[in-house]
Amino acid sequence: MEFTLLFAVAMAYGGGLLALRGEAARGNAADCAGDLGGIMLTAAIVGLFVGRLAAMIGSGVNPLTSPIDVIIIRGGVATVPATLAALAAGAIAARAELIQAADALAVASLSALGGWQLGCLPREACLGSPTDLPWARTQPGSSIGRHPVELYAAGIYLLAAAVLALARKRRMPAGLAAATALIGAAAGRLLTEPMRPSLGGGPVWWYTAGIVAGVGAAAWAVRRRPVSPPPPARP
Description:
This protein has 235 residues and is mainly alpha-helical. It has helices spanning 4-25, 36-58, 69-72, 79-94, 98-104, 106-118, 120-123, 149-167, 176-192, 204-223; strands at 137-138, 145-146. Helix content is 62%, strand content 2%. It has a two-stranded antiparallel ribbon with strand order 1-2. α6 packs antiparallel against α8 and α8 runs antiparallel to α9. The termini are far apart.
């Protein structure tokens, strides 16, 4: 038995927590009075649990008869159910400060995704489709080079987190950081999906919908930016 899935969870939460502390040190979470760490942890636990159950059921494993398999087998987590469950749990936990909390957690969320993808290293599950590129890696007992697709995704998410953190040094319209993070998260999966081993090509339309939703949310955030009041009239 092995618990490498929990190592991936720890790397994800650690990456998110480090980013959250860095954001707090620069005052980028000043608009939100809620417990951001608690919101992030709640969303992560609920998303992981729902996504793991969905992956088990999808592979024919009954969670009721094999409950320990939730944490010890390598089957991974179903991305779409996990994401939807995490978003719902985070929204419920944030309550009235939904937009402020989403903005404050935007960089941390991308960093957490990067940490989760790096969790493929202890799980030995980083490889995807075959390739002849110089940096291809091989599975034990095989001579076929494969894309380290999970490391590609980790790089995309961590780079997006760094760019967004720099952008947040300037004042952004409420909701724009969260929308940008949504675009980055969906785009990271969409760009790497063709290199993942899959019989049906993966839920590409879900990631496309995520990008469209993020662009729409960004446009809404920019349009609703508070208009500066006109200067007072001279006497």
